[in-house]
Amino acid sequence: MTVIDTPLWPHKNFAHWPSGFRAAICLTWDVDDETPVYSRPSTPLSEASEIEQRRYGIRRGLPLIVEMLKATGVPAAFYFPAYMARQWAAVVRSLSQSGYEIGGHGYLHEPVGNLQRHQEEEIIGESLDVLRSLSEKPIRGYRTPSWQFNLWTPELLTRAGVIYDSSLMGDIAPYALAVDSRTHLIEIPIHWYWDDVEYWGHTQVTRGHVIVPPSGVLQVWKAELDGVVEAGGSFVLTLHPHVSGRPGLLTAVRQFVDYAKTIEGLWFTTPGEIADYVKSTDQVPTVRLASTSPAVEYTRKLP
């Protein structure tokens, strides 16, 4: 793959989809539940109300989500912090046996930006070992907690056997992250606009978060999907059982799925299937992750 270091002007569609498809859509769920509370030192562990709100996801939200997926017949991927996977091992096994993709999502939803390289490497390795054991399948994909990402993260993931990540926003179609001259990590991009928490993530510690009506979120998602389809890209919806697993919000997700089904040539798939296809075609751009520029460093030193 050629490393791209210049803007993609004029616009070129780098997404080459299987015959009959012109764009892709993925439904993905991050099964965080209470893990961010445990990894967030600002929240007292004796504060039970947010933990209970988040535990709704695995208790009630996830079963409702699986029912919806079965009713619509669409595939999905579930990203588990290893702590959640261990606590709910039977759930991971059931999802895997039902054909849903299982991906890594840290051990305790740790803020990746606060980790040293050796700490992140240990967390990636241990979390993937847990998920492999429970799912009885290779874990090929990873999503970093809160989408935080270090410059060394692609190397750590590829060394751990991961073939794709889904945490960055550098394009609207799959691309690759250069690790070295011979190795790369497939990136299946996401976006804040495609995340349910941005609209409905109102908890005890985020009570200032404005709750958006489902109709407004549907309007945003439909417009974004239409734009991605027109550009030949991939739309990766990022959801959370403790958020959009609530009945009324899950109804909005179902309505969005029904809308997407009306779009001709839209491939309902999973990030793992996209990554497999991308690797088989070798037709996406490869980029280098950018560190802080010298100009920014100079500005930081100014009085």
Description of the structure:
By secondary structure, this protein is of the alpha/beta class. The chain has a single domain, classed as TIM Barrel (Alpha-Beta Barrel). The protein has helices at 35-38, 48-72, 82-87, 89-97, 117-135, 153-159, 197-200, 214-231, 241-244, 247-261, 271-281, 294-301, and strands at residues 23-30, 77-80, 101-104, 141-142, 164-165, 175-178, 184-187, 234-239, 266-269, 286-287. Strands 1, 2, 3, 8 and 9 form a five-stranded parallel beta sheet that branches. Strands 4-5-7-6-10 form a five-stranded mixed beta sheet. Helix 2 runs parallel beside helix 10 (247-261) and helix 8 packs parallel to helix 10 (247-261). It is globular. 41% of the residues are buried.
Write a brief caption for the model.
The protein is an alpha/beta fold and 303 residues long. The protein has twelve helices and ten strands. Strands 1, 2, 3, 8 and 9 form a five-stranded parallel β-sheet that branches. The protein has a five-stranded mixed β-sheet with strand order 4-5-7-6-10.
The number of E-state strands comes to 10
Output mean pLDDT. Answer: 90
Q: Please report the first level of CATH classification, the CATH class.
A: Alpha Beta
Helical content (DSSP H or I, runs of 4+): 40-55%
The first-to-last residue Cα distance is 43 Å
User: Would you identify the CATH architecture?
Assistant: Alpha-Beta Barrel
Q: What's the alpha carbon Rg, rounded to whole Å?
A: 19 Å
Report strand %.
Answer: 5-15%
